[in-house]
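Field: COMPLEX_INPUT
Field: COMPONENT_COUNT = two
Field: RESIDUE_TOTAL = 200
Field: MODE = joint
Values follow.
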Amino acid sequence: MFVHTVFFWLKHPEKQADRDALRAGIETLRDIEHMDAAYIGVPADTRRPVIDHSYDFSITFVFADQHAHDAYQEHPMHLKFVENCAHLWERVRVYDAVGH
Amino acid sequence: MFVHTVFFWLKHPEKQADRDALRAGIETLRDIEHMDAAYIGVPADTRRPVIDHSYDFSITFVFADQHAHDAYQEHPMHLKFVENCAHLWERVRVYDAVGH
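Field: COMPLEX_OUTPUT
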């Protein structure tokens, strides 16, 4: 099992059009066939000192293994998303985990 | 849908006994009945500038909603895990996301 988690911080979080565009872009990733489960989210209302709720969008994509993840990374729809949307984010932070 | 993601950094990553103890503690969380999916991992071999692979363990627990997540937080097995294992970690970082 391979869990690919990404947090996105918008360059202009005050611009609703940017927010909408990034969300729309992220939603296209869900259709890529290599993943077993896909979760797209925004920060919950939970607040504790250990919680980072500063991001704008999160994705949690679960793959069978790293091979499936690697195929996703190279998938034309993923590459197109990066090409179309990279200008919208200030920062992304990725956590890749293998386990069960 | 509510995704609760936690990254753990060991206080003494060089101590295998600490690593084993934290992993064993994390594994007990999987049995808590409030979650729909549970993934426990360690950093993958992927390396890109945007990837943070500095953590020791990750959990990605998926709940139907925040109510289920809140019940998990208060579950005796979760509280016991924190009581037993908190001394093992230097830092935890939590990301809670709501979405679909």
